[in-house]
Amino acid sequence: MAEKKTLIEVKNLKKYFNVGSGAILKAVDDISFAIKEGETLGLVGESGCGKSTTGRTIIRLYEATGGEVIYNGKNIHGLNKAEAKEFTKQAQMIFQDPYASLNPRITVGDIVGEGIDIHNLYSGKQRTEKIYELLNTVGLNKEHASRFPHEFSGGQRQRIGIARSLAIEPKFIVCDEPISALDVSIQAQVVNLLIKLQRELGLTYLFIAHDLSMVKHISDRVGVMYLGTMVEMASSEELYMNPLHPYTQALLSAIPIADPHVEKSRQRVLLEGDVPSPINPPPGCRFKARCRYAKDICSQEMPAFREISKDHFVACHIV
Ligand code: SF4
Asked: Which of 54, 98, 137, 223 has its CA 20 to 30 A from that of 208?
């Protein structure tokens, strides 16, 4: 089978925020990875680990502090105006809170049509037909076009958000915790819709979530972030079968298993200590305060993000 082409390459990306009094919040601190065309890369980690900031910086909602995001051979943080407009057409975002991300004062038809209007893609009857088609694609129907967001359930609102992001036929979508605000029963429906759309339209996803079980279901590969750094990355299967970083092991051990016998007998790795502040982080491994294997070197040197076995990367001194 032919090797898939790399669609997006993130090189040593940094996003810092100046939080006043000389303090710097290092939300994303020197991370690198690539995503191939048609692939889904899952990004997981606790709240505040930098995963959403990574997604937002990759599609230029934030300017990068350092590093590069290469898309179609160009660094997207150095594009001219015309190139930047073309990039926003190709890269879209689905937001966590479907209700907050939809304008409550305009109809669903106009929400879905926003991108079509901005990029002058269709007008008149063609525009209306395109909106109906998009609603149909995400499991809604044309009668929904004249209604307002408050008339829909959480799952339906997320479908509207997905239809909006598809309107300008993007290639790459950052899904920023698209299921976190939904009931568990609805989460699988939205994830299955995203998988179906990917197959039909050849989309590439960066799927950000803190629910590791759902991430496994949708992702080809998964990256684990901790305090602005990438600590492990591997194929979904490899990461879930053979987690090597102590933090990944702890995250995975917290996922409940449906079989009560297995659930009862397995060992939980409890995370101890507090999450350090991402403001002016101390040297060394950022996980050291909570790591049961920490050694002297862990306080002195930041572990390198190394390939331990084929396509399995880990940042830990003892692996
Ligand atoms: Fe733990 Fe040290 Fe590995 Fe960090 S580098 S995860 S502190 S063993």
From this structure: 137
